[in-house]
Amino acid sequence: MRIQKFKFNEKGLNRFFGPLEAKIMTVLWDGEEMAIKDVQQALEREKAVNFNTVMTVMNRLVEKGVLQKRAEGRTSLYRPILSKEEFFDTQSKELTHELIDEFGSLVVTHMLDALEDVDQGLIEKLEQKIKELKKER
After folding, report:
1. 10-residue block means of pLDDT along the chain (137 residues)?
2. Which runs of consecutive H residues, i.e. helices, occur in 15-83?
3. Which end of the chain is more exposed for a tag (fewer CB within 10 A), N or C?
């Protein structure tokens, strides 16, 4: 699954989804397989939202390949195809590959410059990954 639009000026899930899509995904990642009505009720704890709007957005998320839908009697149940962690892993990998394809070594240089602001553990993981890549070649 590849999200088509990455929004640099947003934060968190809103980088990948519209505001309601992001809220729906959060509800589903925090819960279990759910019906539209259950998602709507969870969202309404924060703000009133129309059932048909939630249904439309959830079905679009199915079309985008983000949610899976299955029928149970007359009710449709929805669940994310990937866990939240798997989703972020997949999307960050896609974004990294696209940036490297587009900008090459500049991206790597900027990522290394950004390491000044991270903890030592991340630097150690990076060093280990570089060692593994050198062994493979």
Report:
1. 77 92 97 95 96 97 96 96 94 90 89 80 86 87
2. 19-30, 36-44, 51-63
3. C
